[in-house]
Amino acid sequence: MCLLLGAAGVGKTLLVKRLQKLSSADGKGDLGDPPPTRPTVGTDLTDIVVPRKITIRELGGCMGPIWPSYYGDCHCLLFMMDAANPTQLSASCVQLLGLLSAEGLAEASVLILFNKIDLPCYMTIEEMKSLIRLPDIIACAKQNITTAEISAHKGTGLSEVMHWLQDTHRPDR
């Protein structure tokens, strides 16, 4: 099981829909226009194939207080941050620190996704890493942490996410 977490409005639902399209038989070409999305209230399960089936459990951002009840089955964590919303960055960093210090996620591989790089006002990955002191976070974390810049809207960087999921979910892991 892979958990997809992040604050409300960072683009988690769109990411899952785009990854599902990429993993489907008809997803080999153009992603097309972004599908409509609504805020997730509760949890959504989505299966993608990379080539093994992986279930992604997306939890709504408003469910932060009960995220820990879902850590048990988690082998990997996708944590999404909004690169175009500097006012949300500190709250997302606090959420990330809480996740990384959770005993139930100590063995999980972590991919931090900086989303919305297609917007003109986005912060670069270097700016975001500096603002949240990501090198210090990585140095202190028990988990293996990777980062990626993506645009769930345009599809930028999603193939990297698929490769990370494939590498993270090898049968020998």
Describe the structure.
The mean pLDDT is 90. The protein has helices spanning 12-23, 86-101, 125-131, 134-140, 158-168, and strands spanning 2-6, 43-49, 53-59, 76-82, 109-115, 145-149. It is globular. The protein has 173 residues and is α/β, with parallel strands linked by helices. Strands 2-3-1-4-5-6 form a six-stranded mixed beta sheet, sandwiched between helices. Helix 1 (12-23) crosses helix 5. The relative contact order is 0.20. Strand 2 and strand 3 form a beta hairpin. The two termini are 13 Å apart.
Layout: helices, strands, pairs:
Elements: E1 2-6, H1 12-23, E2 43-49, E3 53-59, E4 76-82, H2 86-101, E5 109-115, H3 125-131, H4 134-140, E6 145-149, H5 158-168
Helix pairs in contact: 1-5
| Secondary-structure element order, N to C | EHEEEHEHHEH
In quaternary terms, these chains amount to single chain
The largest β sheet comes out as: 6 strands, mixed
> Share of helix among residues?
25-40%
Count the strands?
6
Strand content: 15-25%
Radius of gyration: 15 Å
Low-confidence stretches: none
Q: Kindly report the spatial arrangement of strands forming the biggest sheet.
A: 2-3-1-4-5-6
Mean pLDDT: 90
Question: What is the number of helices?
Answer: 5
Structural class call reads alpha/beta
**Global geometry:** globular
Gap between N and C termini, in Å? 13 Å
